[in-house]
Amino acid sequence: MKLPVLADSRLWGWLAIALAAGALLYVLSPILAPFLAGAILAYVLNPLVGRLTWRYLPRVAAVVLVLLFVLALVVALALVILPLLVKEMRLMSEQLPAFLAWVNQQLAPWLKERFAVDFQLDIDTVKQLAGGILANNQDLVAGLLGSLKIGGLALIAFLVNVLLVPVVLFFLLRDWNAIVLRVDAMIPRHLHKRARSIFAEIDAVLAEFLRGQLIVMLVMSAYYSTALWAAGLEFALPIGVITGLLVIIPYVGAFTGILLGIIAAAMQFGTLAGVAWVALAFAIGQALEGMAVTPLLVGKRIGLHPVAVIFALLAFGYLFGFVGLLVAVPLAATIGVLVRFALRRYLASSLYTGGKSG
């Protein structure tokens, strides 16, 4: 039996367009990161620009004011976090000898006894390397750049991408209404109502995600800073803030925070008990975030299974690098809306029912 759905040339035309767009995105993925970041930020900041434009200012002036506000927030955050990190790294360098002695005297014998692993650190060599890198801020920067072996072209490409984001952001915010109107005018009229309904659902999902994630970041930053301070960790504030802000990147933020916390605890306490208290603080934080904070503040509207989240992180991280990790969950939520719509259409079609479509 010949199915009308499969015989519809428009269906195959849209599939061909989707495949061509996907192939183009894959080919251009190495250069898409700053444009993708600019588009996401423009979507987030456009409501604020719209309010300023409607009440007080011309569009361009409102865009400039919003961008200056965002820049001030970034600078303020950097002025708070960076001095703390520099201070904590200096303290770590002072505590490094005691930590190395603990590794050789307690950890190494335990590993050899339990796992037959012969592990020993050359304390003098490690102290000499660490002292050379952590002597002052200039040596620290030079040491990091040298250890990463960043080439001139790679560094230039990174700086260009960073500088390109605010440029893309400015023009997208300035022309946002015109872009939306042009896209709206390009939608086929017989699909216009349905397409706008899909866009409205996507907008609701993304708005829920962004508002909820912002509150989650603030709540978890406060929790981790307080919990690590209660555990006696000297580096509680910077590690707590960093971990809380990175919860927007699922799994990556938690792993980074736990790694920093365990290393700092091992160097400060030199005992398994001290490390255990810090690990307990992170374990409670992960349980609170996963079972209470995120479900309560973000909700289930994005409709993503944990396996889908992991796949999205791997896929978008592979395609777009670090920016891909940042936008993986909202983009996956957007794709989820499209997939649910396609599934509803499929279940109502003759391809599924074998008869007349509903």
Question: What does it look like?
Answer:
With 358 residues, the protein is mostly helical. It has helices at residues 4-7, 9-55, 59-115, 123-134, 137-148, 152-174, 176-186, 192-230, 236-245, 252-269, 272-297, 306-347, 350-353. The chain is globular.
Outline type? globular
Discrete helix count: 13
Outline the biggest β-sheet: none
- Element-level helix/strand string: HHHHHHHHHHHHH
Distance between the termini: 18 Å
Structural classification: mainly alpha
- Mean pLDDT, all residues: 78
Helix content range of the residues, please?
over 70%
Return residue spans where pLDDT drops below 50 for at least 5 consecutive residues.
none
How much strand?
A: under 5%
Count the beta strands: 0
Radius of gyration: 26 Å
Topology:
Blueprint: H1 4-7, H2 9-55, H3 59-115, H4 123-134, H5 137-148, H6 152-174, H7 176-186, H8 192-230, H9 236-245, H10 252-269, H11 272-297, H12 306-347, H13 350-353
Helix pairs in contact: 2-3, 2-6, 2-12, 3-4, 3-6, 3-9, 3-10, 8-9, 8-11, 8-12, 9-10, 10-11
Identify the notable features of this structure and list them briefly.
single chain; 358 residues; mainly alpha; 13 helices; 85% helix; globular
Quick structural summary:
The protein has 358 residues and is mainly alpha-helical. It has 13 helices and no strands. The protein has helices at residues 4-7, 9-55, 59-115, 123-134, 137-148, 152-174, 176-186, 192-230, 236-245, 252-269, 272-297, 306-347, 350-353.
